[in-house]
Amino acid sequence: MVGLHHEGRGYGGTSEELGGSVVEQAMFLIRENYADRSLTPSWLAERLGVSLRTLQRAFTAQGTGVASTITQVRAEHASELLANPVHRRTTVAEIAVLCGFGAPGDLRRALRNTFDVGPSDLRAQTPGLRHRMTV
Interhelix angle for 66-83 vs 22-33, to 10°? Predict the structure, then answer.
């Protein structure tokens, strides 16, 4: 996309540069910044140049919430790391930090709510089962 400027972990452009709906724009920023603990609905609204309420309404119209979407994206990334043999020795606490969670318990809760599994369940599964879970 033309006009996107990344400065560190922050986004330096305007919402008009991203194009698309508010939800599409927010999803782009969530996917790009999921590991940043400062990523919150308020942070997103500010970056998109909309009110927090406008952002919340847009997500509600899609049948979801802003905060729950952020948590889901973080959980998806965490599940990929936990399932990856390269990260077999990476602790749950380290993966929680890598994915933007405040604490390992937050990661465990997100995995249970999103996939109905815990971190050890993801590591114990065969590759075929892991693929079906993260589809």
Answer: 40
